[in-house]
Amino acid sequence: MLMQILSRAFIVLDYQLNKDYIGEFLCINQSKPELNCEGHCYLQKNLKKAEQSENKSTQQTLKIDFPLSLPVNFTCSFSQVTPIQTFIFRYLVGHPVRYLAAIFHPPSYS
User: Fold this and answer.
1) Any idea where the domains of the chain sit in the sequence?
2) DSSP class of 94
């Protein structure tokens, strides 16, 4: 990613440093001075070429194949669980309520 950004910056920097030479010798529109191209065509051509090479390298690096499903053989057997002892819970009416009310109450503010 950093190389992609730096390559574009290098192309623009190279154009700015050699603008006179590019405009005089490498410009495609030398025969059309009314366009005032000054080598912008050369700059655009190089930027487009860099973008195409970036897209090509990006497409190559993104080609990763993942299998949609993996063959998995999973077997599990469950045995019947029988309780050893049954518990009987008895509820005494009234006793737990009075006991809990005496212990758990909202805090008092002074």
Assistant:
1) 2-60
2) S
Which residues have C-beta within 8 Å of that of residue 16, sequence separation ≥ 6? Answer: none
Dihedral angle, C-alpha 48, 50, 55, 57, nearest 10 °: 160
Q: Say how far apart CA 49 and CA 52 lie, in whole Å.
A: 5
Q: Per residue in 86-97, pLDDT tens?
A: 666 666 555 555
Find all residues with CB under 8 Å of 73, minimum gap 6, and list them: none
Q: What is the pTM of this model?
A: 0.48
Q: Can you read off the two tokens belonging to residue 102?
A: 């005496």
The C-alpha torsion from 3 through 9 and 14 to 20, rounded to 10°, is 160
Indicate the pLDDT class of residue 57, thresholds 50, 70 and 90. Answer: low
